[in-house]
Amino acid sequence: MKIGKIIVAAFFAAGALSFASAATAEVNFKRCAACHGLKAEKVPPGGTIATATVSKEELKKSLKAYKTNKEFGGKMKATMQLQVKPFTEEDLDALADYIFTNFHVEK
Ligand code: HEC
């Protein structure tokens, strides 16, 4: 009986957690929109591609690379290094999921 309750509680906690991270990504994305557009549709100033056209895997890879690899990126990489600084890798994955799920367009 007790174990059943614990399992149910854990199930709800996990559900709440994934909901929270999608909601957090939505909030976090607001700071990206200034340069990337409200739907990630813009080429940011000094950038080369509209983020909405990028695959989910590529988004995850580049966001984490801006955080971990100083050599990664183009001539504006310092801008993005600053942008990803406050976020954990989990936050960045959630942001990539959020952007791809809501805004992806084919090139
Ligand atoms: C101050 C303007 C600015 C803000 C704010 C900003 N970016 Fe960028 N972003 C850029 C520029 C400029 C580049 C190109 C950087 C380079 O030369 O490597 C870029 C590149 C990228 C790239 C790699 C290229 C692409 O479009 O796939 C991703 C992904 C990205 N940004 C996501 C984000 C996310 C997510 C946020 C919010 C957390 C964000 N950016 C906030 C300006 C910005």
- Indicate the structural class: mainly alpha
Please tell me the total number of domains: 1
Helical content band: 55-70%
How many separate helices?
4
> Mean pLDDT score, rounded?
90
CATH fourth-tier homologous superfamily: Cytochrome c-like domain
Sketch the topology as an H/E string, one letter per element: HHHH
Q: Radius of gyration from the CA trace?
A: 17 Å
Q: Are any ligands bound, and if so which?
A: heme C
Oligomeric form of this entry? single chain
CATH architect. name: Orthogonal Bundle
End-to-end span in angstroms? 54 Å
Q: How can the largest sheet be summarized?
A: none
Q: Total strand count, please? A: 0
CATH class: Mainly Alpha
CATH fold-type name: Cytochrome Bc1 Complex, Chain D, domain 2
Strand content: under 5%
Give start-end ranges of low-pLDDT stretches. none
Tell me, what's the shape? elongated
Describe this structure in words.
The protein is mainly alpha-helical and 107 residues long. It has a single domain, classed as Orthogonal Bundle (Cytochrome Bc1 Complex, Chain D, domain 2). It has helices at residues 2-36, 56-68, 77-84, 89-103. α2 runs antiparallel to α4 (89-103). It is elongated, with a radius of gyration of 17 Å. The N and C termini lie far apart (54 Å). The model has no long low-confidence stretch (mean pLDDT 90). The protein binds heme C.
